[in-house]
Amino acid sequence: MKCVALQEIRWEDTGKTKVSQTTIFNGKYEHPHKLGTGFAIHESIIHTAKEFKDINPRISTITIKSKNLDMILINAHALTEEKDEDEKDLFYATLADVFASSTGIIKVVLGDFNAKLDRDICYKKVVGNHSLYESTNDNGVKLIDFEIENGLVIKSTMLPKKDIHKYTRGSLDGKYKNQIDYVLVNSRFKNSILNIRTRRGANIGSDHLLLGIE
After folding, report:
1. CA dihedral of residues 153, 103, 54, 156 (deg, nearest 10)
2. What is the rounded CA–CA span in Å between residue 193 and residue 84?
3. Does residue 59 contact residue 95 with C-beta atoms inside 8 Å?
4. Are 214 and 185 contacting, i.e. CB atoms less than 8 angstroms apart?
């Protein structure tokens, strides 16, 4: 993995830190000592990483520049299901503004959306039919509305995988497995992502599993 989106960094100030062969771009946390997003970029591609922006403790962006195109990565950490509706609406309004103002040919929105999506046929073109769930929660509805309004597809539920490679967070007792982290891309470039699956062996010190993209 040469570029990793990070949530819950919990570092006090926005900054850039070199750790071994990786540079971490981080946003500041929200008091009291929670949230914070950013990116870890391997040294082999660090020359392509430009314009890190810390929008707020739940959203950050980075531009990856190549010879032929620019790609914008938007890292998002949505509120949990039980949070206030106005707070959730504000999060998505801010995310929509960030998406609209970001320049680049390819736009990828990824992160922890705390959302559950079903396999309803009416959403097949934008969600696919490879979700773990048979019902959609409120956060899922908000995520679907956001992607439709912004011309995105949820690529991580469009690719056929065994269930063990779909879930991104498990309960401590091992009884429950949740798919709440997603990768969205503007529909024009949906075929540029060939594979998405969890990397269960990665030692990342988190109750979430690493979601790999190819």
Report:
1. 20
2. 34
3. yes
4. no
Q: How far apart are the first and last CA of the chain?
A: 9
Residue type, 55: I
Hey, how many other C-beta atoms are within 10 angstroms of the C-beta on 92?
19
The tokens 């929008």 sit on which residue? 55
Task: Tell which residue, 192, 199, 127, 195, has the closest CA to residue 158.
Answer: 127
Rounded Cα distance between 149 and 21, Å, is: 39
Q: Per-residue b/e over 134-161, b at no fewer than 16 CB within 10 Å?
A: eebbebbebbbebbeebebbbbbbbbee
* Dist. CA 10–CA 33, nearest whole Å: 6
Mean pLDDT of 208-214: 84
**Nearest Cα to 99, choosing from 78, 68, 72, 63?**
72
> What are the pLDDT digits (tens) for 65-108?
987 889 999 999 999 999 999 999 999 999 999 999 998 899 99
Which position has the token pair 């509805």?
Answer: 141
In tens, the pLDDT along 130-155 reads 998 889 999 999 999 999 999 999 99
Structure tokens at 57: 């403790």
Q: Which ranges in the chain belong to alpha helices (H)?
A: 85-101, 124-127, 138-149
Is the preceding omega at residue 32 within 30 degrees of 0, hence cis? yes
